[in-house]
Specification:
The complex is a heterodimer of chains A (294) and B (552).
Chain A: H1 7-16, E1 19-24, E2 27-32, H2 37-45, H3 47-65, H4 69-82, H5 87-103, H6 110-123, H7 131-140, H8 145-148, H9 157-178, H10 215-261, H11 267-276, H12 281-293
Antiparallel strand pairs in A: 1-2
Chain B: E1 2-8, H1 10-17, E2 26-37, E3 42-51, E4 59-68, E5 74-81, E6 88-96, E7 103-113, E8 115-122, E9 125-131, E10 167-177, E11 186-193, E12 201-202, E13 206-210, E14 213-222, E15 234-236, E16 243-244, E17 247-252, E18 263-269, E19 276-293, E20 304-306, E21 310-318, H2 323-326, E22 329-335, E23 348-351, E24 357-365, E25 374-382, E26 386-391, E27 408-416, E28 426-429, E29 432-433, E30 435-436, E31 447-448, E32 455-456, E33 467-474, E34 489-500, H3 507-510, E35 513-524, E36 530-534, E37 537-542
Parallel strand pairs in B: 13-19, 20-25
Antiparallel strand pairs in B: 1-2, 2-3, 3-6, 4-5, 4-7, 7-10, 8-9, 11-12, 11-14, 14-17, 15-16, 15-18, 18-19, 19-21, 21-23, 22-24, 24-25, 26-27, 27-33, 28-32, 28-34, 29-31, 30-34, 34-35, 35-36, 36-37
Classes of the chains: A mainly alpha (294), B mainly beta (552).
Chain lengths: 294, 552
């Protein structure tokens, strides 16, 4: 979160590489070799932030390696402030810390309290999160150690459980709403091509559209690339949703088992949630048995 | 006989509450003792509460006591205050007993406080003094030791202040005795301590012990202040417990066949009449952690996971018990990296790290006699080591334009090693600069444009590995040169292949890694026959005169 001075150097670097010369059958031609939009954005606009972001990731990794719980908690507060205007980077960095705290042994049960706290913080803006990140952070809510170990007063668990359930339900609804049952991810027609043939066959597939001189070919090629990318985006998203949909029954079983094993158990509310999530009879019975016997 | 010294600071508390600067401490003695004479069947008990000399200016000791039989039923009781003459609150009890058994005396020790009161109104003036609880009368005593002036009844006026609690309970003393019967103690309960427990805990109901755990058991005597005679208690049981003395260590090496097959630990005092014993029922279980990759394709490597691979963690026990019965089960990473969610129900999801390496996962018992014990699994996390291309089985035909030097195919990129799932990774092609000769010389230096999206890795299988990408590999459509006709040329395009951890194009978020370089290679000969290959797929050829297929 320190470096701010690389921008001029990178603009210069980008400036030096904007064109190349190509030998063709008809002589030397000038070919503008422009980076793609996303690459240009990355190189010029975001590099200093990228560097900061990477440094922050390294710092999280280093604090994790040294099992510095206080350091990580302090750093999460700094991240909150520094990345306040970039919610994706803020959420991604806080998620890294939450993951560290839930995964490694810092020999202090406070770590689990903070892992969940960070996850809930990230989930405040759940609608704006990539759904994969939402799933990851909702998974952090499975930890009830701070209640079972007495770090949090057990009489607060009932209201806490209800808050956590709302976040689980939000994720569940989002997955249901995002799932397109008519879309077949295995259909070759829905698969994007890594490289596509340039119309007319004058150029090999995989060339940058900017090198194409003929405007008609270039336009057609760019339209094909855009359609291909749209296909890729849809496929990516639907594959993600399908994978989450596959995981969600066992995930919900974990959620309900963990949440309702702690007192007060509230079997009525548990049954209501089992019905809402449409879990099958076998799963229902497993949840009821486990929560009852714990 | 039981005696305690009770240190407390009510003076400081009281005075501080009334705004005076004081820090005096007082001490109180509590004492209780019981004896039994079997010849006369008489139980005698005494109990007292006394305080240090001088403290009676502020406190009056009070003692409340009872004598009970072994079964807890009370057979005598009494109480008393200290007096002006005797600053010790004594209670003496004598009662007919109920034969040879243990008699218990319980003395409760109290003080009544004379609280200091500020600003009460009396006879036209505001004064200060001390208060007791009797009808809220203010008994005035000067702050001079042993100088009692008199007592006054008045209505407090103005901002006078006093504490609400006047009686303060300081503690109890307990004594047991069987007197001249000289009985040995009985076993009241058994406590346990596992190898990682810091102290003994009561073993209530059924105890669940992981196989091969060495648990130390301790017999607690009743009465608690009487020690077991030598050779007592005697330990036995189906667990194999054997020996004498107040503690014993048992290693549970035989698993219970079901949840009714208790391995018992029994402590018996044979010297008691009748003999007494306590039994602990132990279920001995074996624990297995189960690690099931979410992408669990046939023939995959069970000991190696791909980067970011998700693995469902669970457990089984024999006999079947819940995680709660086992004391709570939590998966932990004891070495290496990865992500977990910290659950206590033995069910979690492991996400492999973004870097290759060894990882050890431990399923750990959280509480109870087998605390911190569990089972470990050693795994290796691997990155893609390479990739290759196959001609797509979905679109097997070759592309060609009749009359041109041209050929193309649809290829699938597959990842190595083939027995690993990389299904949580993404793939794209990166940059590359071509070298070309002869017929293709116009393409020399051609830059490859990185793919402008990430493709999720899917369809992992042991035969061909995970599918990363579908590609259209094409020479382009090359007419004969007007002067030279067709002539030899080749084109070599080394293209970086990258895997990433997210579908975001921004390397900041996707953490992309260049892991191999694919070679796109094409040739055209002097009769225009084109051939093409990429990353191991091909070469595939078409003659100039071959019919059109997919030509644009």
């Amino acid at each position: 979160m320190k470096h701010k001075s690389f921008k001029p150097f990178l603009i210069l670097t980008a400036g030096l590489s904007i064109s190349i010369f190509v030998f063709s059958q008809s002589g030397i031609i000038f070919v503008p070799n422009q980076p793609t939009h996303s690459e240009r954005r990355l190189e010029i606009d975001d590099f200093h932030q990228t560097n900061d972001y990477q440094n922050d990731l390294k710092k999280i990794s280093s604090l994790t390696d040294s099992r510095d719980l206080k350091g990580l908690i302090r750093f999460s507060e700094e991240i909150e402030k520094y990345w306040a205007n970039d919610s994706l980077k803020r959420s991604s960095l806080l998620a890294e810390i939450s993951n560290s705290l839930s995964s490694y042994d810092f020999s202090d049960n406070l770590q689990y309290k903070h892992s969940v706290k960070l996850a809930k913080n990230i989930l405040r803006d759940a609608d704006a999160l990539p759904i994969q990140l939402e799933f990851e952070m909702v998974s952090k809510l499975l930890s009830t150690t701070s209640y079972s170990s007495g770090i949090e007063p057990s009489d607060r668990w009932e209201s806490e459980r209800s808050k956590r359930m709302k976040l689980v339900i939000h994720l569940w609804n989002r997955i249901q709403e995002s799932f397109d049952p008519t879309f077949d991810t295995s259909d070759i027609r829905n698969q994007p091509l890594g490289n596509i043939a340039v119309p007319g066959g004058k150029y090999p597939s995989g060339v940058n559209p900017q090198v194409i001189k003929e405007s008609e070919i270039k336009e057609k090629y760019m339209a094909s690339l855009a359609a291909n990318k749209a296909k890729a985006d849809k496929l990516n998203f639907q594959i993600q949703i399908r994978r989450m949909k596959e995981q969600i029954p066992s995930f919900l079983e974990k959620v309900l088992t963990d949440f309702y094993s702690l007192d007060p158990k509230n079997p009525k509310e548990l049954e209501k949630n089992i019905r809402m999530f449409k879990l099958d009879q076998k799963t229902r019975q497993r949840i009821l048995d486990t929560t009852k016997n714990t | 006989m039981k005696r305690i010294l009770l240190l407390f600071a009510p003076v400081a508390i009281c005075l501080a509450a009334f705004g005076l600067n004081a820090s005096a401490y007082s001490s109180v003695d509590g004492y209780s003792s019981v004896s039994y004479d079997s010849a006369t069947n008489t139980v005698t008990g005494i109990s007292y509460t006394s305080q240090a000399y001088g403290a009676d200016l502020y406190y009056q000791p009070y003692d409340s006591v009872y004598i009970a039989l072994e079964d807890g039923s009370q057979i005598a009781g009494g109480d008393g205050f200290s007096t002006e003459e005797d600053p010790r609150a004594d209670v003496y009890l004598q009662v007919t007993g109920n034969g040879c058994q243990f008699y218990q005396i319980v003395g409760q020790h109290w003080v009544r406080a004379y609280y200091y009161v500020t600003n009460y109104y009396d006879h036209g003036v505001y004064l200060t003094g001390y208060l007791d609880d009797d009808d809220y009368n203010y008994y005035f005593r000067e702050q001079v030791q042993n100088t009692f002036i008199g007592s006054y009844t008045f209505t407090g006026q103005g901002p006078s202040r006093a504490a609400e609690t006047v009686f303060m309970f300081l503690g109890s003393t307990v004594d047991w005795s069987s007197g001249t019967c000289n009985l040995p103690p009985k076993v009241s309960k058994i406590q346990y301590k596992g190898p990682n427990n810091s102290s003994f805990s009561d073993a209530s109901s059924t105890l669940y012990v992981l196989k091969d755990t060495a648990v130390t058991f301790k017999a607690i005597p009743n009465p608690s202040n009487v020690t077991f005679p030598s050779g007592q208690p005697v330990w036995s049981g189906s667990s194999g417990a054997s020996g004498t003395g107040d503690t014993i260590t048992v290693t549970f090496s035989t698993v219970s066949s079901n949840t009714s097959d208790f391995k018992t630990v029994v402590a018996t005092t044979t010297s008691s009449s009748p003999s007494s014993s306590q039994t602990i029922n132990v279920i001995v279980y074996s624990l297995t952690g189960t690690l099931t990759p979410q992408d669990n394709f046939t023939g995959r490597n069970a000991d190696k996971y791909g980067l970011l691979e998700k693995v469902n963690l669970a457990f089984t026990t024999t006999p079947s018990i819940s995680a709660g019965n086992a004391g709570g089960l939590t998966w932990k990473i004891t070495s290496g990296q990865g992500t977990l969610n910290n659950t206590t129900t033995g069910s979690d999801t492991f996400i492999a790290p973004k870097t290759a390496g060894a990882v050890t996962l431990k399923l750990e018992i959280q509480n109870g006699p087998s605390k911190q014990l569990g089972t470990q699994s050693n795994k290796t996390v691997v990155a893609p080591t390479g990739a290759y291309m196959i001609k797509s089985p979905d679109v097997p035909s070759l592309t060609h334009c009749n009359g041109y030097s041209s050929v193309g195919f649809f290829g699938e990129v597959r990842l190595e090693p083939r027995d690993i799932s990389f299904s949580n990774l993404y793939f794209r092609e990166g940059t590359g600069k071509a070298t070309a000769t002869g017929f293709y010389i116009s393409e020399d230096g051609r830059n490859h444009d990185p793919t402008d999206f990430m493709t999720p890795v899917t369809n992992c299988n042991i035969t061909s590995g995970c599918k990363a990408f579908i590609d259209q590999v094409y020479t382009g459509k090359w007419p004969a040169d007007p002067q030279l006709g067709f002539y030899y040329g080749d084109f070599r395009w080394p293209i970086k292949w990258l895997y990433a951890f997210a579908n975001d194009l921004d390397p900041v978020f996707n953490g992309q890694v260049e892991f191999t370089t694919a070679i796109h290679y094409q040739e055209s000969n002097n009769i225009g026959t084109a051939s093409i290959s990429k990353a191991g797929a091909g070469p595939f050829s078409r003659l100039v005169g071959d019919p059109d297929n997919g030509c644009d």
